[in-house]
Amino acid sequence: MIEVKNLTKGFGKNKVLHDLSINVRKASVYGLLGPNGAGKTTLIKHLTGLYRQDQGTVTIDHKPVYENPEVKAQIVYIPDDLYFFSQYSIDETAKFYAKIYPQWNWNRYEQLKQVFPIDSKRRVVKLSKGMQKQVAFWLGICAMPRVMVLDEPVDGLDPVMRKKVWSLVLQDVAEREVTVLVSSHNLRELEDVCDHVGILHNGKIVVERELDDMKSDIHKFQIAFSDGIPEGFLEDTHILHKTQTGSILLLIARGDKDELMQKVKSANPVILDVLPLTLEEIFIYELGGMGYDIQNILI
Ligand SMILES: Nc1ncnc2c1ncn2[C@@H]1O[C@H](COP(=O)(O)OP(=O)(O)OP(=O)(O)O)[C@@H](O)[C@H]1O
């Protein structure tokens, strides 16, 4: 659906994206994570046709995005820094959207007044930051896009509104097969909504994973033995992290959970617990293993 191949982009001498490739499947949610200055917004501006790449290709359904009004009319982009016409009310902005987006849906616009409790006669720029964000989603969802590109989408929204907005977006993913790319610093937020996550660092994707795969492939165990750790314990296992506090051994290992359990059990531990792993922990251990300075990548 969204395909970026070998994308390279620089501003003057500053190379921002280096030979970057990602593939976002139709009707899925792809989370783009990365520290400040990694290149997330620059990548997003290629996906929405605002920037022309120096090298590589950026396509949606195999059609180039740049200078392609037909493709752009299927994309809704909700940037971090919203822009609205200064004199327009919400209703007037909606009329403007209706002209740009061929699939605009007025019924939906009326229905969503139940979700977004803002007087549609008010001028958008006079609303609070969070209310403007609500308006961006309200209008964006009524545009009936095939692709949504969201930059720090729920920044400024209160927790109740965050849930409402995500539920509307995910409903469109499920029912209308909308494809979503969302950029965020917040891994916790992405964990609940994404199918895939890619980490961008210094203009490169350093890790890209399907979340279900990641969770089924890495496991955390708390183990204790009555007479210390046996010689050669889990020698042939891919251990990502190991700490010992007193007699308790905390292990994070990669592999099939049942096989790992079998191996641990065969050493006769007196304590064996499987502990839940957050996505943040998984990324930290994965990236740590790849030699990246984690603290600078994840927030
Ligand atoms: N129009 C521009 N002209 C020159 N340099 C730019 C331009 N846009 C971005 N850059 C540079 O590209 C790099 C990546 O910026 P970008 O905004 O893509 O990062 P980001 O990952 O979105 O960061 P943040 O999380 O802070 O929003 C930065 O070094 C930035 O200074």
UniProtKB/TrEMBL annotation:
ABC transporter domain location: 2-227
GO molecular function, one term: ATP binding
Entries under SMART domains matching the protein: AAA
InterPro entries, A to Z: AAA+_ATPase, ABC_transporter-like_ATP-bd, ABC_Transporter_VariousFunc, P-loop_NTPase
Alphabetized UniProt keyword annotations: ATP-binding, Nucleotide-binding, Transport
Protein name as annotated: ATP-binding cassette domain-containing protein
